[in-house]
Amino acid sequence: MKILLAEDDFVTRKFMTNFLSKYGDCDVTVDGMEAVDAFMMSLEENEPYDLVCLDIMMPVMDGYQALMGIRNLEKEHGISVEDGTKVIMTTALTDEKNVKMAFELGCTIYSGKPIDQERFEQALKKIGLI
């Protein structure tokens, strides 16, 4: 599995990288702009990501903006919603407003922080990635 992680917090980034690495190759970015750029390059190289994990609160471009950018790139490349990359929002923002907005923008799963490894693995199984 090819994974993209966008996380600005060093400790969380290190934890998530170690956790996700057992499932595949994990590329890491520190803000939403880098994530969108990495996603665009993966499409141009015809090696799209299977999973993108996005934090919401990041500098330069937040997770919502990055998610919109990713979904727009998929549309531009003729990728249907059904065939789109699975996106898990990983964030401390767990209120209803933020959860609703993430799903409206096209996230697949919304996972609150701190990350519960067992629940995260169950989510990966549920969306068919492991």
Describe the model.
The chain is α/β, with parallel strands linked by helices. It has a single domain, classed as Response regulator (Rossmann fold, 3-Layer(aba) Sandwich). Helix content is 45%, strand content 18%. The chain is built from five helices and five strands; from the N terminus they run E-H-E-H-E-H-E-H-E-H. Strand 1, helix 1 and strand 2 form a beta-alpha-beta unit. The protein starts with a strand and ends with a helix. The model has no long low-confidence stretch (mean pLDDT 95).
Short overview:
This protein is of the alpha/beta class and 130 residues long. It is 45% helix and 18% strand. It has one domain: Response regulator (Rossmann fold).
Strand content: 15-25%
Number of domains: 1
CATH architecture assignment name:
3-Layer(aba) Sandwich
The stretches of 5 or more residues where confidence is low (pLDDT under 50) are none
Number of strands: 5
Number of helices: 5
- The overall pLDDT, averaged over residues, is 95
